[in-house]
Specification:
With about 180 residues, the protein is of the alpha+beta class. Helices cover about 60% and strands about 15% of the residues.
């Protein structure tokens, strides 16, 4: 009977040992799965935090877009007013008129300086190259000595806000030299 009891207890021990190994393997798998889920959740939380931070920065940087666009029409009006009074007329004007024109000029500079402080900057067209992402061609004009497609004149200054286009520069571009067609 002792042999029988021993066999039974050894059999139970083997079954419990296999079951313990199975439980250990199952627990290790479960720990690995939970660790993977935790790491994924932490990564998602970090991505959400970064996305929220980026959205917040963009919102603060571009919140003034509509307001800035409206202010540009005022700056344009100042510019047109100043262009209507050439330097020769200003020099010959009476002191009161000169003071008004100088006040308009100072106000325009202050407005453009304030826009600049908020990230609104004029598009530089000094290189003369036409860029369809920054410029809007309103006409092609003959321009002796200028290559086709280069900027001849800036009709309205364009502006960027941050790295986004606020308003394209309206420009005229060179038509290029007309080629003579041979005649028979």
């Amino acid at each position: 009977m002792a042999d029988n009891d021993e066999g039974l207890s050894n059999g139970q021990a083997n079954d419990n040992g296999d079951e313990g190994v199975d439980d250990l393997a199952r627990l290790k798998t479960e720990v690995a799965e939970l660790k993977d889920r935790l790491l994924r959740a932490l990564a998602e939380a970090e991505n959400t935090r970064r996305r929220g931070e980026r959205d917040r920065l963009e919102a603060s940087q571009y919140a003034v877009t509509r307001f800035a666009r409206d202010m540009l029409t005022i700056a344009d009006s100042f510019g047109r007013a100043l262009a209507a009074c050439p330097a020769s007329v200003l020099a010959a004007a009476d002191p009161q008129l000169r003071a008004v024109i100088e006040g308009v000029d100072a106000t325009e500079r202050q407005l453009l300086s304030t826009l600049d402080r908020y990230g609104v900057k004029a598009i530089d067209t000094s290189d003369g190259r036409f860029d369809p992402h920054l410029h809007q061609a309103i006409a092609e004009v003959p321009a002796a000595g200028k290559p086709k497609g280069t900027i001849v004149d800036v009709v309205q200054t364009g502006f960027m806000i941050g790295d986004r286009l606020l308003r394209p520069a309206m420009v005229t571009v060179a038509r290029g030299e007309a080629r003579e067609t041979p005649t028979d």
